[in-house]
């Protein structure tokens, strides 16, 4: 177990599953109020030696902050409630994503887009979110648009994948999916770098704190996918 | 082929006009779903934003329904009741099991056993 005081595994209790009856119970210890820092992971990732997929959560501090804003200022939130909402959030994201993904597949597309997400929301009973989300999306896009001009930018990552590695190395790029070109470049020393190339006629790359530009490269015909 | 999805990292939009959740983490969770290939920027943003709205909704709803029990404190118990009371939260039913003290549970078990024994005797008698 994860050091949790409660268990849903009836076999560990030596009790046959059918005794649990209609409701699903979790055993709670006497002092179970979250003081003991069970699974105390501010980071929101499971075990230390790498994460299991089912343990991926959003950071508890962010979640707690949003919860706090939703209740009256005098209200408090129990620690196990915060942890629980962390899990609910991951469940929610997966829930929406799988619905959106299904629609995507049905339409024979490979990339989940905004429409798929909005459609999933309204199918799953969150249709009241759709209009506000559209407004937010509009604001988001406007915030990203800058002055007109031709801008080319490239961001380079040192390796594949691990998005959680090395927060000091963050490249920020703006694009819409229609303007993305994936490419692998072989650099002078023979190493491959993964590259995202953007061309756009009316977007400007915003300079925000915490980013570094590694390269600015004009896309050329030599840019081939590898 | 270069990983077009892996390339490039998004900044966390700490700006309150944007989202207050780390986009990269949201993406990680989304990608852990089976059969998900690529996710477009808009979809990521919408999901992150929707998640914020969801947290607010769940917290506010549970708190409102709960106040009166543990006054002014949102507890796990309040959250665990939400799937019963609101259809939208039904999907959370499995991950929000209600908690029960062990001694209460064993009491329940005993009572159930007694009922079963009682039934057994009746069946024997009916000839």
Automatic annotation (TrEMBL), chain A:
This is Nuclear transcription factor Y subunit beta. Residues 27-48 are annotated as: Disordered. Keywords: DNA-binding, Transcription, Transcription regulation. The keyword DNA-binding applies. Residues 30-43 have a biased composition (Acidic residues). It holds the Pfam family CBFD_NFYB_HMF. CDD domains: HFD_NFYB (cd22907). It comes from the Eukaryota. Gene3D superfamilies: Histone, subunit A. The lineage of its organism: Eukaryota, Metazoa, Chordata, Craniata, Vertebrata. The keyword Isomerase does not apply. InterPro entries: CBFA_NFYB_domain, Histone-fold, Transc_fact_NFYB/HAP3, Transcrpt_fac_NFYB/HAP3_CS. Component of the sequence-specific heterotrimeric transcription factor (NF-Y) which specifically recognizes a 5'-CCAAT-3' box motif found in the promoters of its target genes. NF-Y can function as both an activator and a repressor, depending on its interacting cofactors. Signal peptide: none annotated. Belongs to the NFYB/HAP3 subunit family. PANTHER family: CCAAT-BINDING TRANSCRIPTION FACTOR-RELATED (PTHR11064), NUCLEAR TRANSCRIPTION FACTOR Y SUBUNIT BETA (PTHR11064:SF9). Residues 57-121 form the Transcription factor CBF/NF-Y/archaeal histone domain. It comes from Polyodon spathula (North American paddlefish).
